[in-house]
Design brief:
19 helices, 17 strands, six-stranded mixed sheet, alpha+beta, Rossmann fold, about 55% helix
Length: about 575
């Protein structure tokens, strides 16, 4: 619900603030006073196109702000845009500069105008002779019929929409699986070849590292033997006794130990050194034995070297293709085997998806049949009650009709032996038709009605749908065009009936309509000779009588007009629909 509108430098309105409440609010005023500027302001708040011609002459920019009540869903949308909702109240705004630039604000955050339109969509339904009417959209017409039908449609429609969403998921998955069959087959063949190659080599974890060590040893066996022999002779030479000057490490250490042992009795420190030299001799003896054993184990084996080199080449071929090590190759083999199982099972998956798809289409066809039957029954009832409303709204020869249609589609749902195009709402196309005069062929609303007639059709439909529409605020601009007398009273009564379930704002020139208002706002024009301004005023009881007098007779102080105005207010009060 709109709680407040603030207008600055918009058309003839210099500065005005209008506080709004629930129920029926009427806006009246003399011709040219600026009544329609309120509708223009609302259009800007709803993300409508900005016209620099609406900026007040001499002003740098026009500004419109509105305060609306925010439910949790709206609050979430605003927070996604970076705006804030203060205690359930949302501030929205629009600024249009005289140069043509337009800016929008939601909850204090600057947003694109399209985002403003997205936030406010569904908050207000505007009906006027120059507006894009909500009920002219095909989806809105179907939604109106479904709302009128009630549970007979909404319950199966919920089930249908859920199954339809699942069908779209299944069809997307099926398209992916079938559409990529060639690529999947190619991937499976490459995986099989790779697995066969790995199985043929049959690598062992860590094998590449151990073979590298063995190959290096076999390839340098002679060099290693020479180095080992030299080391062994340096540690313990067998030629020491016969070769003059040949001294090995063990002999030298033994000589040092002997020398120190000879003076042990003369100095304890010399004895300690002798013991340490003895430890070295033991260690050298162990090392010399190990070197001798290592030397004996070194053999030149060309056959083994060739076998190791061949094996390493096979492993290198694998690591070059599948990983950087044998352990990595083995990990690839495990993942490739799992992927191959998945690919080989795609045929089973295709069959399962096709089976689910066919089952879903069968269920949707059954639900669509139920929906069509419920809509057909509701369409007849809705046509009858809306036609009755139109007759009461000074369209005595008008006929309203709701037409259901279908479009053939070879890939659609099969009903009654034919395939029909289907959407998330079923197979039915819903179209609202109007025959403005008796004997005329019913035509779509946007082609079969004048502006004034269309406004009354919208009013009739909205009244019929009162209580089912999620739109919290309705705005009617000149809905009473071409209406007078008793029909004008009927218009007022129906607007009051609609206002039992929603906030209704009406721009009118008819006193019979204004008399039904819960809140009466007058737009007054004043001029100082050079500047014309308009202001908004909420009328009290006395003010309402004076304004109705002006609307009735053009005279505010005429006793006859005042009496007539008071009588009209009394009639309207008595004719008002009882509150729910």
């Amino acid at each position: 619900m709109i709680e407040e509108i603030r207008i600055s430098a918009l058309g003839v309105i210099e500065e005005s603030v209008l506080e709004l409440g629930p129920g029926l609010t009427v806006i009246t005023g003399e011709t040219g006073a600026g009544k329609t500027m309120l509708v223009t302001a609302l259009g800007l708040l709803l993300g409508g196109r900005a016209d620099t011609g609406s900026v007040r002459s001499g002003a740098r920019a026009a500004r419109v702000e509105g305060v609306v009540g925010a439910d949790p869903a709206l609050t979430a949308s605003v927070e996604e845009l970076g705006g804030d909702v203060d205690e359930g109240q949302l501030l929205i705004g629009r600024r249009i500069s005289a140069e043509g630039r337009s800016r929008a604000f939601v909850g204090g955050a600057a947003v694109p105008v399209s985002a403003l339109a997205g936030v406010t969509d569904g908050l207000v339904a505007v009906h006027g002779q120059s507006d894009q009417h909500r009920l002219l959209r095909a989806d809105a017409q179907r939604a109106a019929l479904d709302a009128f039908a009630g549970d007979a449609v909404t319950e199966p429609l919920g089930d249908y929409a859920e199954r339809h969403a699942r069908l779209k998921q299944v069809e997307a998955q099926l398209h992916e699986v079938v559409g990529s069959a060639r690529e999947r087959a190619r991937e499976a063949e490459l995986l099989r070849l790779g697995l066969e190659e790995v199985e043929a080599v049959a690598p062992v974890p860590g094998e590449d590292e151990s073979l590298a060590i063995e190959e290096a040893r076999l390839g340098f066996a002679d060099t290693l033997r020479t180095a080992a022999e030299t080391a062994r002779e340096s540690l313990s030479s067998e030629q020491q006794a016969t070769s003059a000057g040949a001294v090995d490490a063990l002999g030298a250490v033994a000589a040092a130990r002997k020398a120190l042992d000879g003076v042990r009795d003369h100095d304890p420190e010399a004895g300690a050194l002798a013991d340490r030299v003895a430890e070295i001799s033991y260690l050298l003896s162990d090392v010399a034995a190990d070197v001798a054993s290592y030397t004996a184990g070194l053999e030149t084996d060309p056959a083994r070297l060739a076998a190791v080199s061949t094996r390493r080449a096979a492993l290198t071929a694998l690591t070059r293709k599948y990983s950087d090590s044998v352990d990595g190759v083995l990990a690839w083999r495990r993942s490739a085997a799992d992927r191959l199982l998945e690919l080989d099972g795609s045929d089973d998956r295709v069959a399962a998806l096709q089976e689910e798809r066919d089952a879903l289409r069968g269920t949707l066809a059954a639900l669509a049949t139920v929906l069509s039957a419920a809509r057909a029954e509701a369409a007849q009832r809705m046509a009858t009650v809306v036609t009755a409303e139109l007759h009461a709204l000074s369209m005595p020869h008008a006929g309203f009709k709701v037409r259901l249609g279908r479009v053939e589609d070879p890939d659609g749902l099969e009903l009654d032996g034919q395939c029909w195009h289907f959407t998330a709402s079923g197979v039915d196309d819903v179209e609202l038709l109007l025959a403005a005069n008796g004997g005329a062929e019913p035509r779509p609303l946007d082609k079969g009605a004048s502006g004034g007639e269309l406004s009354r059709v919208m009013l009739a439909v909205e009244v019929v749908l009162a209580g089912t529409s999620p739109v919290p605020t309705f705005v009617f601009d000149e809905v009473d065009a071409g209406v007078g007398g008793r029909a004008a009273v009927e218009v007022g009564q129906r607007l009051a009936r609609l206002a039992r379930d929603a906030q209704v704002l009406v721009v009118t020139h008819l006193p019979q309509v204004a008399a039904f208002a819960d809140c009466h706002v007058v737009v007054r024009k004043s001029s100082d000779g050079s500047v014309t301004t308009s202001g908004l005023s909420v009328l009290d009881d006395e003010g309402r009588v004076r304004e109705l007098s002006r609307m009735l007779a053009g005279l505010e102080d005429s006793e006859t007009a005042v009496a007539h105005a008071q009588e009209l207010l009394g009639v309207a009060q008595a004719a008002r629909p009882a509150p729910r």
